[in-house]
Design goal:
By secondary structure, the protein is an alpha+beta fold. The protein has a domain of 228 residues: Beta-galactosidase, Chain A, domain 5 (Distorted Sandwich). It is built from 15 helices and 29 strands. α4 packs antiparallel against α5 and α8 packs across α9. It starts with 52 loop residues before the first strand and ends with a helix.
């Protein structure tokens, strides 16, 4: 990122990189679908690239889907096989916190292979492990293995369901089950089959069903419906097995869902292949061998990408990266936008590549979160980064005054909608998170100049639109270089706004016209300097001049209006020399974002911010990182413990990165940085190696213990960049 002195960037090429510093179709009428019958002539499968398989689907424990307008989806669900008809509330398909299942991802590079273990101590007392791997040099097929092991001396009966479905929008689609195979046709993938290849022991029984489903992403609904209609009972030597799918059922029309149910006694193992019938996986394929090869490739790439992470910390770091990568998802379908007049416009065929923060609680993408995820992703797979970045900015609105707006969270497609209350489906136009995606792109270009500059040319017009939206919608009327978050999400004594990304961080109780928010003022200064660099690199001379001027003016306003001389820190300004006096992350934002001049010895603000960062009675937890709010602040832990004290790893990473920029000029910074960096690493590893086996969303401001969502597959994974010290 550019230096605070606003020196113009130098020429950037592959050999010299030195800095001083979509349109979606609207509602259409659906045509009636026609049924295809099996058997049918074999269709030649199209060639699939690496991004055509996305593993897993976001809301489920384990599933796959193809990247296509008409999606092919597969998945698995399970439950303890009991006499009780109450098993339906215990079926595991869509991941929910109420399931009370611990899950962790020992290893995964989601485009190639992975493993997830589910620890069910509440109902099953069984560990279920689901693994997948693509055969070498193939992107059109994948092998899947499901294993179940009892956690006690007792063996349990477990119903495992494997299913495949095609989209209800696929007019020629078909998915039909038999005892050992689901086969069908999808408009994009062509012919497919999901075949049972190996079982470590014979199942107690096998059942299957073929049906039409308007909600193929909710298999538990179909299971419940069909078992309710067909109460099969099978007499075994020692007990009666109930709750079986019908041996075979075909709906009258539009079969788009096939499911196989096998009842196993633990321990068990079941291997299936998803493949085109014209090009099946080789008979010589060995799951263990291929999985080991994929894992060794992952380890080698990890060591090459993160060479400074010690061997002692490598297992933790690899599992943390795997958890993030396992959250890679693809969303396609309708999205809704609500305009100020309450009109909701539905856009069809939107699509988005993105990671998700957490499968049980946040199985959908967030603009603010994803920008942090991508700081890690572009170092791991820069081609994937470009794909994700472009898909986010392709969601821009192009509609008059709202042009450039991108919703802060995305609910795209029926499956995503099924995990949200209906009132949350429509994005509220105008609400938008901080523009940190721009800065992630900036870092990407610095590390990958050849690909980065070429990519910048493609996205520059979109970047400019979004910049203009921030600038026009967030500046205070009559003061073009002063910015505030619009409105209040949280009312009451300490306010709060979701737009800021720091949801309930204390704000002035009333939304007043003279308010200038210290965090947004900092973001806008940095955004202008970043766009200045982009304009220079892509040779947009007039834009460069505009962004440079905006940067200077915005930064000047920040220093003159948001610095509270009495408290010696940055704060939200209320005008007329008054402030919203809270001691927290906003107090050090300009330092963390490298907006303060670093090469002068007469900057009085830097020592004061360092004092705040080094004070264990204020922001510094002695063994866990920097708190979002000081314990002596009047809003500390009030009405919750989110951004009112909690330790957030994404902001800790930004602060560590910012301090590194200054440490050559302020000797005391090096010791502080080293101490806090090691504290964060040690605390997160200590909290990880407990029964849950995952990193947390946030850490307690007083004890340092992890809490809220776990495993948190989102920005807490920035611990890898903290460990690598980049």
């Amino acid at each position: 990122m550019s230096e605070a002195d606003n020196s113009p960037p130098q020429n950037i090429t592959e050999n010299n990189l030195n800095l001083n510093t979509t349109n979606n179709q609207q509602t259409r009428t659906q045509l009636p679908r026609r049924r295809r019958s099996l058997p049918r002539s074999i269709n030649r499968p199209r060639q699939l690239n690496l991004l055509d398989f996305i593993i897993p689907r976001a809301p489920v424990y384990f599933g796959l889907q193809t990247k296509a307008k008409t999606q092919l989806m597969t998945g698995f669900c399970f439950h303890e096989h009991l006499h009780s008809h109450g098993f339906f509330r215990k079926i595991r398909d869509v991941m929910k916190s109420s399931d009370k299942i611990d899950y962790y991802v020992p290893q995964a590079d989601s485009l190639n292979y992975g493993s997830v273990t589910l620890v069910d101590t509440y109902y099953l007392n069984t560990n279920i492990t689901m693994e997948y791997v693509k055969p070498s040099d193939r992107n059109d097929a994948v092998a899947i293995r499901i294993k179940g092991v009892s956690r006690t001396d007792k063996e349990y009966l477990v119903s495992v369901y494997s299913y495949a479905s095609v989209s209800v929008n696929d007019e020629s689609g078909l998915a039909e089950a038999s005892a050992e195979k689901i086969q069908g046709y999808n408009a994009d993938y062509k012919d497919f089959q999901l075949t049972s290849q190996y079982q470590s022991k014979l199942p107690v029984t096998t059942s299957y069903v073929s049906a039409h489903s308007d909600n193929p992403y909710r298999p538990s609904d179909l299971v419940s419906s069909h078992i309710g209609k067909h109460k099969h009972t099978y007499q075994l030597p020692n007990e009666t097995i109930t709750a079986q799918l019908p041996r075979q059922e075909k709906s009258n029309t539009n079969i788009n869902f096939g499911m196989i149910q096998k009842v196993f006694e633990t321990p068990f193992e079941w291997v299936l292949y998803l493949e085109p019938p014209s090009n099946p996986i080789s008979k010589d394929f060995d799951f263990d061998t291929q999985f080991d090869v994929a894992h060794q490739n992952f380890v080698a790439k990890f060591i090459s990408t993160f060479p400074h992470i010690s061997a002692a910390n490598r297992e933790f770091a690899q599992q943390t990266l795997s958890s993030l990568l396992f959250g890679l998802s693809y969303f396609r379908g309708e999205r809704m936008i609500q305009f100020p007049n309450k009109t909701i416009v539905t856009y069809h065929d939107a699509e988005l590549y993105s990671f998700i923060p957490n499968k049980p609680s946040f199985p959908r993408p967030f603009f603010w979160d994803e920008a942090f995820h991508e700081m890690l992703v572009f170092r791991w797979d820069y081609k994937l980064f470009m794909k994700i970045f472009k898909s986010w900015f392709d969601l821009q609105v192009n509609d008059g005054e709202w042009t450039g707006w991108i919703a802060r969270e995305q609910v795209i497609g029926k499956e995503a909608q099924s995990r949200c209350p209906e009132w949350a489906w429509a994005g509220q136009v105008g609400t938008m998170n901080p523009p940190i995606f721009f800065f992630t792109l900036h870092d990407f270009i610095l590390e990958h100049p050849s690909s980065g500059l070429s990519f910048l040319k493609k996205v520059y017009p979109q970047l400019k639109k979004t910049y203009d939206f921030y600038y026009s919608k967030c500046h205070i009327k009559g003061q073009p270089y002063a910015f505030k978050w619009p409105g209040r999400t949280y009312e009451g004594e300490f306010g709060g706004t979701l737009d800021s990304g720091m949801d309930d961080y204390p704000r002035y109780p009333q939304d007043i016209d003279t308010e200038v928010d210290g965090d947004l003022q900092s973001w806008m200064a940095l955004l202008s300097s970043t766009m200045r660099d982009f304009a220079y690199w892509s040779v947009h001379t007039e834009d460069y001049k505009t962004y440079a001027e905006n940067y200077e003016q915005t930064l000047s306003y920040l220093r003159s209006n948001n610095w509270n001389e009495n408290m010696q820190q940055y704060q939200d300004s209320l005008g007329n020399g008054k402030f919203s006096e809270h001691t927290g992350y906003i107090g050090v934002y300009p330092l963390c974002l490298k907006l303060e001049p670093h090469n002068t010895g007469n900057n009085p603000r830097i020592p004061q911010m360092l004092k705040l960062l080094n004070d264990t009675k204020k922001l510094l937890h002695p063994t866990a990182g920097w708190r979002s709010l000081s314990p002596d602040d009047s809003g500390f832990l009030l009405s919750g413990n989110y951004w009112r004290g909690a330790i957030w790893i994404n902001l800790n990473y930004l602060c560590l990165k910012g301090l590194k920029y200054y440490e050559d000029h302020y000797p005391e910074i090096k010791e502080l940085r080293s101490q806090v960096r090691q504290s964060i690493i040690s605390n997160m590893m200590k909290e990880y190696y407990k029964p849950h086996g995952g990193i947390f969303e946030v850490y307690m401001p007083l004890s340092g213990k992890g809490y809220f969502n776990v495993p948190f597959t989102g920005w807490s994974s920035l611990i890898l960049l903290i460990m690598e010290d980049i």
